[in-house]
Specification:
alpha+beta, 296 residues, 6-stranded mixed β-sheet
């Protein structure tokens, strides 16, 4: 006996003479797309219409502003010349980090009961690690707190970090005998109090499982002890002496010009003495003659 073929839903409705209609539907087979940098990205968009035979298809990219990708039958902007469309599915060639974002496929069918349908496709362009930017201080005073920083701003997903001292990895475990802490997510290496043993060459490595890890060039950190410097002491003494001499000269100059309050008071007193002397001088003519006869 032969097997009875299965009837499709539409065939069954036809057999039962039940009218049916297919309204506009828009769908995607892959709402989230992840591809490596400089490869091709396929943004899936499929549709079915009821009556419309030539629907209008548009692609938009949403970011801070909405920009057209495919409009009025052609690609626009940076997508022109490096993208193609099949039905409503778009292929972007040689994608970069700038292409990452949220894309909208819109299909308009004017003759259908439902005129507009859309789907959203999220594109993530994966970027392997780049050589991170490392900040290592050249000279540090013994006993001080120090931070070393490492950052790779280009890798996607974000990189994790590890530090090496003299090409030996530093442990991320919080052990009692370790005087530093390392955050693999931020790339910050913190020393609570550095000592002579912390001197050496430091480098940071960034990795994100998309490509090979990348390191910055090694940078040497020197630890110095606080020591009294004879030259520094002599220079400080000479500077203090010059400062005192300058102050004395400034005070003398102010006194001579009458800028100082004490000098002003002294000047006010002197004219008063002169007036008193003039006031005591004899003005009586008889007294003057008596004085002359006594002298003879």
């Amino acid at each position: 006996m032969g097997r009875t073929p299965l009837l499709t839903f539409s065939a069954l409705l036809t057999l039962l003479q039940i009218p049916y209609s297919i309204s506009l539907t828009v769908m995607t087979s892959k709402p989230k797309v992840e591809v490596h940098e400089n490869t091709n990205a396929v943004l899936s968009c499929e549709f079915r219409t009821e009556k419309e035979t030539n629907p209008r298809i548009e692609w938009k990219k949403k970011g801070k502003d909405v920009s057209y990708v495919y409009f009025d039958g052609e690609f626009t902007g940076s997508f022109k010349g490096r993208a193609s469309i099949d039905g409503a599915t778009v292929t972007l060639r040689g994608v970069t980090q700038k292409d990452s974002g949220v894309y909208h496929c819109e299909v308009t069918a004017r003759h259908d009961k439902i005129h507009l349908g859309e789907v959203t496709v999220s594109l993530s362009v994966l970027v392997p690690p780049h050589a991170p930017d490392c900040q290592v201080p050249e000279t540090v005073m013994s006993g001080s707190a120090v931070e070393l920083h490492c950052k790779d701003k280009l890798s996607v997903p974000p990189a994790t970090y590890s530090w090496y001292k003299d090409n030996k990895p530093l442990s991320t475990a919080h052990l009692p005998d370790i005087n530093y802490s390392l955050d693999p997510k931020t790339g910050t290496l913190k020393f609570k109090s550095v000592s002579k043993s912390d001197a050496g060459q430091y480098r940071c490595e960034a990795s994100n499982a998309i490509g090979a890890p990348k390191s910055c060039a090694g940078q040497h950190m020197k630890i110095t002890e606080f020591e009294l410097n004879l030259t520094l002491i002599i220079a400080a003494g000479v500077g203090a002496g010059l400062f005192l001499l300058s102050c004395c000269l400034a005070i003398c100059l102010c006194c001579r010009r009458g800028c100082c309050c004490c000098c002003r008071k002294e000047k006010k007193k002197r004219p008063q003495k002169r007036n008193m002397t003039k006031h005591r001088a004899p003005t009586d003519p008889r007294h003057y003659r008596h004085t002359q006869s006594f002298m003879i």
